[in-house]
Write a structure and sequence with these properties.
It contains 28 helices and 34 strands. By secondary structure, it is an alpha/beta fold. It has four domains: about 140 residues, Aconitase, Domain 2 (3-Layer(aba) Sandwich), CATH 3.40.1060; about 120 residues, Aconitase, domain 3 (2-Layer Sandwich); about 190 residues, Aconitase, domain 3; about 220 residues, Aconitase, domain 4 (Alpha-Beta Barrel). The strands form eight sheets. It has a seven-stranded mixed β-sheet, with helices on both faces. A seven-stranded mixed β-sheet has the order 31-30-28-26-32-33-34. Strand 2 and strand 3 form a beta hairpin. Helix 7 runs parallel beside helix 8, helix 13 crosses helix 15 and helix 13 runs parallel beside helix 17. The N terminus is likely disordered.
């Protein structure tokens, strides 16, 4: 059991450069790699948006931006504090992460009212709650072939529509609002060569989960662009392509782009925007740094077990080895969350494995074709009158309307399914929270811990498995018994999609180009400004407030979503949840450190700081120019959502550094830098046996950053009195990033230059 190198027979990985010559992969070509790199679609689009004179050092200005209501308040607050007067590019504020006032009160709708007032004041597009999830609206109304879109959500992916899109933390969007650039080295480009045609019962999530399985653990495409080409593309409807594309985020790639064709043109025509279509293809000769080959005809029905989309198996493999695999999940859960008592093996009974929920939702699952085919599978059947529930969230009101017109909604309702409004809740823990020990099957983007909304730190446990909508419907047809859609006899019926824009025209606010400075922002009582942040001092002393040796630490662990999102517009209140479901002691430790730093800044240096500094020099002299803050150590932090709160919450609690072996994603590292958090890395193999309460002293840090010194000697001062040498690195900073770190955060950077 398991995956061979390169994946199953359906996926092959080629770990060296490959040419594409007239559409055919080749080992050699009559062109040097440096020249042929310019033949990729990615090169053409990135360079057409590059404001730099150096093609290898990108400075990108995007064509449009999108944010949802977990992030847009903070982004706008940052931008206005930095001098923004109006939105310079189309910027859509969606309200699909509506947290339903999980903590009670007016907080949720106060944010929405703020969003509408901001759209009027600065010239934005406002999408009210339950009209569309963020990425559906961007696909329907904002994507253009050859364009680039920046979003404050990690699943900002519109490559299947010919748009290169990037998900980043909020400060990167604030920079665009201030007419600055998104800076990055020119990424490597990986060819994804598609062949064959999916079998009946196979959907986009099956392909996507298999792709994530094959690439994630090795980092095969980390921070690279995936470029989809090959004869298999023509065998995929546009919703199928979009469903694969949005999940490329889970491979940790930077962005994606696909060849376009008449199917793509049809999407734009259906949405009354055919003028936004353009044919996109690689040049006759193009060079790629690596290649992934996917035989769509060999893809099988897949399931991703907790707690990551890469923990994936074919459904048949899972069912044959269910006890072994579920025991491993139970052990992993017990290790992560000592207060829980998982017993998922209880789901094995009566010759099968039984789930408690099936959910089809969001930017990955709630697509028109997914739901119509789910209806084809379960039509005339029943979800049963037991504990199993089947919930369907169409991705936008126009999709809901078309499902109603063709009768799919009625077909689903008759079976016992529940149709719900457009909402991202099941994807981030604010909807359909299972019962304790529940097992939920979801066609959503992630199954990280807490993404289903449970609170394992309080002894609650629930598990999410990712599956395609087709297999979820097959499972629902069998009353919750996990079933591969390929094992069900049904006839899928293709329905042409008709988009009705009047739905949006009757409800959305379109304000781009119509900024009105006279409009006052409507600030509810929870909406606050960012606290004061200070320049980096000559030296840095940090106390380890959390030490996490998990293979990967997700942004959902750094700052959980769900109910915490109710406080998204109040930095200090939101920060109370930092690492709450992973290291509950972190907040109190960080606060204690911050209180001592406030004393030091006021001239009353705590004895505790003097004692520590006395181990490495003259304590009184050092105390005058040494910041004291908290620090998080994790092996590989930052996989997951683009939420800048994962970094900003650390900063408002007095966090000044992250130490790790590598950052899981560029976006999390960028978030740390933009919030003035030093992104320290260690050489692989360097031991880090230190514990919470130990200290790291970094002398001369300001000079090192200012002068671009990437290797930085430090000292670890242990609670037992021992002092140890430690070599830290801060590599690859741009000139702007250096200044941001020196100024203490992005807002300070802009304030000084305003």
């Amino acid at each position: 059991m398991g995956w061979a190198q390169g994946g199953y027979h359906m996926i092959q990985l080629t770990d060296h450069g490959m040419y594409l010559v007239n559409g055919v992969p080749c080992e050699t070509a009559p062109a040097a790699p440096a020249q042929a790199r310019q033949g990729t679609m990615a090169w053409h689009i990135l360079q057409s948006h590059n404001c730099s004179d150096d093609p290898e050092r990108l400075r990108i200005r995007f064509d449009a931006m999108v944010s949802h209501d977990i992030t847009y308040v903070g982004i706008i607050q940052q931008a206005r504090a930095s001098g923004m007067k109006e939105f310079p590019i189309p910027y859509a504020l969606t309200n699909c992460h509506n947290s339903l006032c999980a903590v009670g009160g007016t907080i949720n709708e106060d944010d929405h009212v703020f969003g509408l007032s901001a759209a009027k004041k600065y010239g934005g597009i406002y999408v009210p709650a339950n009209q569309s999830v963020i990425h559906s609206y961007a696909r329907e109304q904002m994507a253009k072939c050859g364009a680039m879109i920046l979003g404050s959500d990690s699943h900002t992916r519109y490559g299947a529509l010919g748009t290169m899109a990037v998900g980043e933390g909020g400060p990167e969007l604030a920079k665009q609002l201030l007419k600055n650039t998104w800076d990055a080295p020119m990424p490597e480009v990986v060819m994804v060569y598609l062949t064959g045609k999916p079998r009946r019962g196979i959907g986009p999530h099956d392909v996507a989960i298999a792709l994530v399985k094959a690439t994630f653990e090795s980092g095969f495409v980390n921070n690279k662009v995936l470029e989809f080409v090959g004869p298999g593309i023509k065998e995929l409807p546009i919703d199928f392509r979009n469903g694969i594309d949005v999940m490329t985020t889970e491979t940790t790639c930077l962005s994606s782009i696909w060849e376009t064709d008449e199917e793509t043109r049809g999407f734009y025509a259906a949405h009354q925007r055919e003028q936004d279509y353009a044919p996109l293809h690689p040049a006759d000769v193009a060079y790629y740094d690596r290649m992934i080959t996917i035989d769509l005809g060999n893809v099988e029905s897949m399931i991703a077990l907790p707690f990551h989309p890469s923990n994936a198996w074919t459904i048949h493999e899972f069912l044959e080895n269910a006890e072994e695999l579920l025991v491993k999940v139970e052990a992993d859960a017990a290790k992560r969350f000592p207060k829980t008592h998982p017993h998922l093996t209880d789901k094995i009974r009566d010759g099968g494995v039984w789930a408690d929920q099936g959910v089809i939702a969001g930017c990955a699952g709630g697509l028109f074709d997914n739901i119509t085919e789910a209806a084809d599978i379960i039509r005339g059947g029943s979800t049963g009158n037991g504990a199993f529930t089947f919930d369907v969230y169409p991705t936008s009101v126009p999709v809901s309307l078309e499902l109603t017109r063709i009768g799919a909604t009625a077909d689903l309702l008759k079976t016992g399914a529940v149709i719900k409004p457009s909402f991202c809740g099941p994807c981030f823990g604010a909807g359909d929270v299972p019962a304790n020990n529940g097992l939920s099957l979801r066609h959503t983007t992630r199954n990280f811990p807490n993404r289903e909304g449970s609170k394992p730190g309080e002894g609650q446990f629930a598990a999410v498995c990712l599956m395609d909508a087709r297999s979820i419907a097959a499972t629902a047809l069998n009353g919750g018994r996990i079933t591969a859609a390929t094992d069900i006899d049904y006839t899928p019926v293709h329905h042409p999609y008709h988009f009705d824009k009047s739905v949006y025209d009757n409800r959305l606010y379109y304000g781009f180009g119509k900024a009105d400075p006279s409009v006052e922002l409507i600030m509810g009582p929870n909406i606050t400004d960012w606290p004061k942040m200070y320049d980096l001092t000559d030296n840095l002393l940090v106390e380890l407030a959390a030490v996490i040796h998990d293979d990967v630490t997700t942004t959902d662990e750094l700052i959980p979503s769900g109910e915490t999102s109710s406080y998204r517009s109040n930095p200090l209140r939101l920060a109370e949840f930092t690492l709450s479901r992973r290291v509950p002691e972190y907040v109190s430790r960080a606060k204690a450190v911050a209180a001592q730093e406030a004393q030091r800044r006021a001239g009353d240096v705590p004895a505790h700081i003097l004692e520590v500094l006395g181990k490495v020099g003259d304590a009184r002299v050092l105390a005058a120019n040494t910041q004291f803050g908290s620090c998080v150590f994790a092996n590989k932090p930052g996989d997951g959502s683009a939420r800048e709160q994962a970094a900003s919450c650390q900063k408002v609690l007095g966090g000044f550094a992250n130490i790790c072996y590598e950052f899981a994603t560029k976006r999390y590292r960028s978030n740390c830098i933009n919030w003035g958090i030093l992104p320290f890395t260690l050489d692989k193999g360097t031991a880090f046996p230190y514990k919470a309460g130990d200290f790291v002293f970094v002398p001369g840090i300001r000079e090192a950053i200012a002068n671009g010194r990437e290797d930085i000697p430090a000292k670890v001062i242990c609670k037992d009195g021992g002092v140890h040498e430690l070599l830290l690195h801060v590599r690859g900073l741009t000139a702007d990033e250096k200044e941001i770190l020196l100024d203490g955060c992005l807002m300070n950077y802009y304030a000084k230059r305003g």
